[in-house]
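Q: Give me a backbone?
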Amino acid sequence: MQPKLPMVLPVVLILCTNLDAKDQLEPRYNNKPLSYWVERFEKAETDNDREEAVNAICKFGKDAAPAAHKLILLLDDHSDDFRLRVERMLSVIGSGLKPVVPELVKMLQDGTARYPKDVIEVIGYAGTDALEAVPILTKMLDNPNCMLMRSACFVRSGLGQSPQSLGSKKPFSPVPSGMTR
């Protein structure tokens, strides 16, 4: 009687190959997947560990797009330094942010963005792939918060909307009223 091992071996090899293929779909840096670096960023205990994770994620460039949704949620953090690092990671994704632009727009429309200026800046990183944000950015041109209005104007003009066509009821000045250059 022949041993059944030779018939089992191909099945085991196919299963192992499928597991390896799935693992290889996620982009890697230093042989660690993108999700590892995002989790490491979130759980870092020291600034050095956090900065190492930021640098690794930035190396992915546009390939870090699968992490964009999770990174956007981190913009809710109260730490300016933490959010700045999140923005840095999102900035390298660039046009890869297009799938999350509707979520960013909704955050501004609903008023759920704790730090709307940061959300506006992230929209700007998506470039012309964020044209659906033009209506909310236009609306923000009348915001009494000078910093929000300026960010909206800057990002909107970067989306191909000239300052002459911004549609604000107030004239835009790069210097807030009462200040001189």
